[in-house]
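Notes continue from the previous slide.

Worked example: a multi-chain complex. Inputs as given:
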Amino acid sequence: MSRDSSGGFPVPGLSPLAGMVSTSSSRCMTTAASTTMDSSESVTDVPPRIKFKRLDKTAKHIMQILDKEAVEEVKGQREIPDIKPGYIVQLKVEVPENKQRVSTVKGIVIARRNAGLNNTFRIRRMVAGVGVESLFPLYSPNIKEIKVVDKKKVRRAKLYYLRNKMNALR
Amino acid sequence: MCIRVIGASNRRYAHIGDVIVVVIKETIPNTPLKRSEVIRAVIVHTRKELKRDNMMIIRYDDNAVVVIDQEGNLKGTQIFGAIARELRTSRFI
């Protein structure tokens, strides 16, 4: 195994702690004779620092792989188009309580947040004279269908300025 | 204008679906409600986001209430504007 070749490979969490303990003990004693003894102790205690952690041991990497797998699984089931700010989008959202009605939501996408499986996007629409903003997870199972109706040219990633502009029927 | 939040004794905030006590500050003419009347109302729109369990968030552009009487029945006959689903599960319509 490759692990044996590095020679006494400790658990990565322990090595900085062992280094800290030996340096604090060397700081406490101030006489010259004892510092030489402590430095030799610290050399034998702390193994050589390893610059790169093994990727498959870090939780961040494992979470990234899990995230990608979950996204691929959802993408294989449903067809999810690319949604960018400025698109006018029509959604079919299922109501989980009743499970009977599929309501359509149509509005302009004003923001999109990329976070793996928790990709969310905000839609702004006018409902009966009142502006309503809704935030939906992109890969939510409640969203039955997403259809891009129109694309507007915008020069921003987040169109929050529309909140001040779109108050037509106040 | 909100005077009081119905619920616990020192309750600070009210969200969509909560009953509050309001005083009327201005009216349009020819309505049964007059200015400086103290009545109860239920919140239907807030600018603060309303979070749902499935990570959906709804945010209105205004703060709006619907006037009710002491028992919880509507005082008027029509409601203008959309109502969130949370009000259906509680005892209002």
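Summary box: The CA atoms of residues 66 and 80 of chain B lie 9 Å apart. Chain B has a mean pLDDT of 86.
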